[in-house]
User: Which sequence fits this backbone?
């Protein structure tokens, strides 16, 4: 079975080399407890959230037959996962020290399942969950993220005002052919400002990076895509913007990795264009009636991945209770009331005194 999976992965990799897969999934930084293998195995676009979940130690509903992720240290999981999605380019000139894999069928994905798992399992602790798309003014915060990033610019007006402050990235980045007077260029630069501000604001709350609850950061950047539409992908502005973005991403990855003490996974998804729009699933009365028609024989539900966990909990709890009853019964049966029990001993002394 393993040979068949590897053979299928090799065929898909050959297809991607031929030009079928153009987008790229890259690992910029990762701890030693998370093991990625060097290869050209394509990763399905809809399974990228499962990769993030598995690296954080969470279970997934379906097995992931992808050779790129190996079994790491199960007892030391990363404290944070940072996933940056860059739209408008299928490949970035990232450093060679990381790992890169082609993406097969680049469909829109969401880390909502990972965020919900963190919120459910660590609701009483201090997790930081931040999902942000600056150009769309879309933000989602859970846990301590509301207090840590309360000063983070999330609207287009806030981003523009932030750029023209004294400590903005405009004073440190080499703009080259980009202009401060163009709205498209300012949108691209404002996304880089968000990366800088996230690391800067988190550095003020370093204690949150040392707790036991995992953190999640999901960022979607589309400024480079707008630069390509405005000037063209062969323009000098697009080339300069791509290089500035690569340098900013590497700096952001190093800062986040160091803030978490080398125990964070930083991933980048470069996608030219998604194949289909993201449609969130909803339940309705029509859906329930349709499922009843598909299962007219009242068959049992499919195997649930939680079955083995529940079975082991119930099994060992019953064994522990049975052993406890046997031990207690044996001690009660062989107990000497006049010597082992304080109740009989005190009662016997009281009778003698009377």
Assistant:
């Amino acid at each position: 079975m393993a040979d068949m999976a590897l053979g299928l992965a090799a065929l898909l990799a050959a297809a991607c080399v031929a030009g079928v897969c153009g987008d790229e999934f890259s690992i910029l930084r990762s701890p030693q407890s998370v093991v990625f293998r060097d290869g050209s195995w394509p990763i399905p676009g809809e399974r990228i959230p499962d990769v993030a979940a598995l690296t954080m130690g969470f279970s997934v509903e379906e097995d992931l037959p992808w050779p790129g992720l190996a079994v790491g240290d199960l007892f030391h999981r990363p404290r944070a996962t940072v996933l940056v999605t860059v739209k408008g380019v299928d490949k970035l000139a990232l450093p060679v020290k990381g790992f890169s894999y082609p993406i097969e069928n680049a469909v829109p994905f969401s880390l909502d399942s990972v965020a919900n798992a963190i919120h459910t399992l660590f609701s009483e602790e201090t997790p930081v969950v931040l999902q942000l798309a600056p150009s769309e003014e879309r933000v989602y915060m859970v846990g301590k993220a509301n207090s840590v990033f309360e000063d983070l610019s999330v609207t287009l007006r806030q981003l523009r005002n932030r750029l023209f402050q004294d400590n903005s990235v405009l004073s440190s980045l080499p703009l080259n052919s980009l202009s401060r007077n163009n709205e498209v260029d300012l949108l691209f630069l404002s996304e880089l400002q968000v990366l800088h501000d996230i690391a800067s604001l988190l550095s003020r709350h370093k204690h949150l990076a040392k707790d036991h609850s995992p953190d999640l950061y999901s960022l979607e950047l589309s400024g480079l895509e707008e630069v390509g539409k405005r000037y063209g992908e062969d323009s000098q502005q697009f080339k300069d913007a791509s290089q500035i973005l690569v340098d900013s991403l590497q700096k952001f990855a190093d800062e986040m990795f160091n803030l978490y003490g080398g125990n964070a996974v930083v991933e980048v998804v470069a996608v030219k264009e998604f194949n289909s729009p993201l449609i969130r699933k909803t339940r309705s009365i029509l859906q329930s009636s349709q499922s009843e028609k598909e299962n007219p024989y009242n068959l049992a539900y499919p195997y649930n991945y939680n079955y083995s966990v529940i079975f082991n909990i119930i099994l060992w709890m019953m064994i522990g209770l049975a052993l406890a009853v046997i031990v207690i019964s044996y001690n009660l049966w062989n107990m000497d009331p006049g010597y082992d029990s304080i109740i009989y001993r005190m009662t016997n002394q009281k009778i003698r005194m009377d």
Remarks:
- Residues 19-271 form one domain.
- The radius of gyration is 28 Å.
- The first strand starts at residue 24 and ends at 29.
